[in-house]
Each structure stands twice: as structure tokens, then as C-alpha cells.
């Protein structure tokens, strides 16, 4: 999060608390889901980073470990 005070009405704590109260329940219920644009095995992390930097991806890029 960009530079904000930790406390106060518009501080980081208030924003995190609002996300926990409002957004996480929707994620838990499956109403909000990330868009997965690509999956790379962890061994290809450099390739995944290059794809991100080049704008060749959309959504989230996941690094997978194991199967």
C-alpha cells in the first residue's frame, strides 16, 4: 500500500480491516476469484518474470511447486 499512516480513519489498519470484513467473505464464498493468466513451475520463475515485464500475460501468474 502506498504511503499512508498506520492508524486513523484512512490508515492502513482501517483499510485492511475493511478488506477482511468485506472482501475475504466474498472470496471464501467463491463470488470473487482471481483470473489466472499463466502457470509456471518454480524452476521457470525467470521466464515468468520476463513474461510479466513484457506484458505478455493477463491476470495472475502463478508459480507452482510440485505437481
Write up this protein.
With 67 residues, the protein is α+β, with helices and mostly antiparallel strands. It is built from two helices and two strands, in the order H-E-H-E. The protein has helices at 12-28, 45-53, and strands at 36-41, 60-64. Strand 1 (36-41), helix 2 and strand 2 form a beta-alpha-beta unit. The two termini are 33 Å apart. The model has no long low-confidence stretch (mean pLDDT 89).
Keywords:
two-stranded parallel sheet; 67 residues; 2 helices; single chain; 2 strands; alpha+beta
Topology:
Layout: H1 12-28, E1 36-41, H2 45-53, E2 60-64
Parallel strand pairs: 1-2
Can I get a quick summary?
The chain contains two helices and two strands; from the N terminus they run αβαβ. The chain has helices spanning 12-28, 45-53, and strands at residues 36-41, 60-64.
State the share of residues found in helices, binned by percent.
25-40%
- Class computed from helices, strands and strand pairing: alpha+beta
Tally of strands: 2
Biggest sheet architecture? 2 strands, parallel
Global mean pLDDT: 89
Based on Cα principal axes, name the global outline.
extended
Query: What is the tally of helical segments?
Result: 2
Q: Looking across the biggest beta sheet, what order are the strands in?
A: 1-2
**Which residues form runs of ≥5 with pLDDT under 50?**
none
Radius of gyration: 16 Å
Report strand %: 15-25%
Amino acid at each position: 500500500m502506498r504511503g499512508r499512516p498506520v492508524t486513523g480513519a484512512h490508515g492502513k489498519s482501517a483499510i485492511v480491516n475493511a478488506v477482511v470484513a468485506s472482501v475475504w467473505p466474498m472470496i471464501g464464498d467463491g463470488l470473487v476469484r482471481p483470473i489466472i493468466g499463466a502457470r509456471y513451475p518454480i524452476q521457470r520463475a525467470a521466464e515468468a518474470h520476463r513474461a510479466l515485464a513484457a506484458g505478455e500475460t493477463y491476470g495472475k501468474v502463478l508459480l507452482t511447486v510440485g505437481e
